[in-house]
Design brief:
Elements lengths: L3 E5 L3 E4 L7 H9 L4 E4 L10 H13 L8 E7 L6 H9 L4 E4 L19 H10 L2 E4 L13 H16 L5 E3 L5 H9 L4 E5 L1 H5 L3 H4 L16 H12 L5 E3 L8 H4 L14 H11 L6 H13 L7 E10 L4 E2 L5 E2 L7 E6 L1
Parallel strand pairs: 2-3, 3-4, 4-5, 5-6, 6-7, 7-8, 8-9
Antiparallel strand pairs: 1-10, 10-13, 11-12
The structure holds (4S)-2,6-dioxohexahydropyrimidine-4-carboxylic acid and zinc ion.
The site of (4S)-2,6-dioxohexahydropyrimidine-4-carboxylic acid has 11 residues, from loops.
EC number: 3.5.2.3
Family: Belongs to the metallo-dependent hydrolases superfamily. DHOase family. Class II DHOase subfamily.
Pathway: Pyrimidine metabolism; UMP biosynthesis via de novo pathway; (S)-dihydroorotate from bicarbonate: step 3/3
Length: about 350
């Protein structure tokens, strides 16, 4: 039995740090093991220009623990007002990717994209600039069942984006269905996906059976177990097209345990450990390093990290909550539950 794992330092290709005081909590949690992270732009107001991204990056860097070399990779929030020139400027300011949220799909996305087709000139500029397109793949029409929204997005929008822009690198973020797995695996090598720990570990029973579990509520919502198994099989296959993206997304406890609870799982304190647990349970520990530390960097065209981290087989319990400096608290993902692997 494996008792210890050495991994090239992993990167988190999708997360939410938020802003202000929250950075004092979220940045150290991720920097403890991840060398880089792709930082989502759904702040209030959203990060819509290179200058906003640069200023946000400086606030994140200021929240790094002493001596940390952690590097945030910044993203732009697309709207129907985004211009090709915004893309050129953002790229020149170090922004690596732009995020497409369909308007209203998730947290702080009301200002996002109403018409995907109208963004075609922006996609063409992104392709020319070598900027990646990161996609929240869910339609938002009221008549489409929430469990079908990912597949509907793939069928109505993503297929077209990919077909019309063969040189554009596209990441379908936080995939949740066998439909997404099938789409990504059959697409060209310009198309990849991230997958979260919760979508590998859980299915919709973990959200709804025995009472509503608000801390397992995220978007796209957890799906039925057949989809969970398709995600597990995909990562266990060792495909380079699906890599680590936690979607760690903190919301204060009172906003999760609420009559209208926010979507998001704050997984930064346990994510790498839980991915290790999933891969071990799948008999695929030998595929963990490529998933966590090679495939994302390779897809983004960035160098792989040089140093390593160590995980040891030593069970610990995720805390029930985490105090914030404003007197509020966060309930971390997997709160109160045992995790088999510990970061050494
Ligand atoms: O669960 C989610 N939380 N999904 C998202 O797409 C956004 C995120 C957030 O920002 O809270
Ligand atoms: Zn996200």
């Amino acid at each position: 039995m494996t008792e210890e794992l050495s991994l090239l330092a992993p990167d988190d290709w999708h997360l939410h740090f938020r802003d202000g005081q929250m950075l004092q909590q979220t940045v150290p949690a991720t920097a403890r093991c991840f060398q880089r992270a792709v930082v989502m732009p759904n702040l209030v107001p959203p990060v819509t220009t290179g200058a906003m991204a640069q200023a946000y990056r400086a606030r994140i860097l200021a929240a790094r623990p002493e001596g940390s070399t952690f590097e945030p990779l910044m993203t732009l929030f697309l709207t129907n007002q985004t211009t090709p020139d915004d893309i050129v400027q953002a790229k020149a300011m170090g922004v690596v990717a732009a995020k497409l949220y369909p308007a209203g799909a998730t947290t702080n996305s009301s200002a996002a994209v109403q018409s995907v087709a109208a963004l075609q000139p922006v996609f063409e500029t992104m392709q020319a600039q070598g900027m990646l397109l990161l996609v929240h793949g869910e339609v938002t029409q009221a008549h489409i069942d929430i469990f079908d929204r990912e597949k509907a997005f793939i069928d109505t929008h993503l297929t077209q984006i990919v077909d019309r822009n063969p040189g554009l690198k596209v990441v379908l973020e936080h995939i949740t269905t066998s439909d997404a797995v099938d789409f990504v695996l059959q697409a060209s090598d310009r198309v990849a996906a991230t997958v979260t720990p919760q979508h590998l570990l859980l299915n919709r029973n973990d959200l709804l059976v025995g009472g509503i579990r608000p801390h397992n509520f995220c978007l796209p919502v957890l799906k039925r177990n057949t989809h969970q198994r398709a995600l597990q099989a995909a990562v266990a296959s060792g495909t380079a097209k699906i890599f680590l993206g936690t979607d760690s997304a903190p919301h204060e406890k009172a906003k999760k345990e609420n009559a209208c609870g926010c979507a998001g799982c704050y997984s930064a304190w346990s994510a790498i450990e839980l991915y290790a647990q999933v891969f071990e349970d799948l008999g695929a520990l030998d595929k963990l390093e490529a998933f966590a530390s090679h495939s994302g960097a390779d897809f983004y065209g960035l160098p792989r990290n040089r140093h390593s981290i160590r995980l040891v087989k030593d069970s610990w319990q995720v805390p029930d909550d985490i105090a914030l400096s404003n007197g509020e608290s966060l309930v971390p993902f997997f709160a109160g539950q045992a995790v088999r692997w510990r970061l050494a």
